[in-house]
Amino acid sequence: MAPPRVISLVPSLTETLFALGAGATLIARTRYCVEPVGAVEGLPVVGGPKDPDVDAIIQLRPSLVLMGVEENRREDYDRLRAAGLEIFPARVRSVADVPPVVVEIGRRLGTLDAARAIASEIEGAAESVVTFVADVQRQAEQGLLHVFCPIWRDPWMVASQGTYLADVLRRVGLPSLLHHPEAADGSAYREVELDEIVEVDPGLVLLPSEPYPFGPDDRDEILSWPLRASRERQVHLVDGRMLTWYGARTASALHALSLLALRWVGAEDEPKTAPPTIH
After folding, report:
1. Residue 163 is part of which domain span?
2. 261 and 163 in one domain?
3. Is the residue at 272 inside a domain?
4. Prediction pTM value
């Protein structure tokens, strides 16, 4: 049997392939597939998640294309399917969705044992975090702490409740009144106006590095807004991959974010038992 020939159109799944020991199966990637550093740079680039070079992908004749329901476009999926390519469309809207996705990829690539090990780590981290963030939730509720975590600006946009990002924040004890249920049209994101943000008065603002590359200038702008978070200097730049990259990174992201959450809400004592550091 010929070895698998995989093209990944999802950066976090590209990283996960290497964690599974299946990096050698990858024959092309998107320009945003930059991890692991030192392992992907020599691979051909076939556009981005939202604008893949479909013709180039078809010409490479992969045996499997990894896509994400949220990250990639349906029209590109349809064209690749029409060309007869096998596609695995990952549907991840919560932390609980990640282990089955990892296991299925491992099954298809012959790395099932490694996939089950990563899935077990994710499940263990998620379970540990439930207890670990009790202090975060308690203090957040007492202080009426709500989080504003935009994914874009001009216009400002936030994720809906039915997204991986919103679930990660919820699991580490950082709720948001701005994460409304999914829109009737199925959109995972929605625009928010400054007046709405001010009305919610978040006590914490997280500015991720992706998909929009928030930086110091954005932080300085929000610090001037009439928000509790601004008055208390609780506006923080964070690694967006902790919030949006699912797969091999999920377990360690939950651990890191839970520790940061404790710091942000000013918990006096850290729990006696912390989730294990993974990867």
Report:
1. 121-265
2. yes
3. no
4. 0.88
CA distance 5 to 198: 50
8-state DSSP, 47: B
Output the six-digit token pair for 181: 């249920």
List residues bridging with 238 in a β-sheet. 208
CA distance 149 to 60: 39
Q: Does 133 lie in the same domain as 257?
A: yes
Instruction: List the structure tokens of 16.
Output: 């996960």
> Nearest-CA neighbor of 166 among 189, 193, 138, 187?
189
Quick one: tokens of 235? 């506006």
Q: What is the pLDDT of residues 19-73, one digit of tens each?
A: 999 999 999 999 999 999 999 999 999 999 999 999 999 999 999 999 999 999 9
Residue 68: which H helix or E strand, with range? strand 64-68
Complete edge-to-edge strand list for the sheet that includes strand 26-28: 26-28, 6-8, 64-68, 87-90
Measured in residues, the chain has a length of 279
The residue whose two tokens read 């780590």 is 121
Residues 89/81, Cβ–Cβ less than 8 Å: no
What are the structure tokens assigned to 99, written together? 């282990």
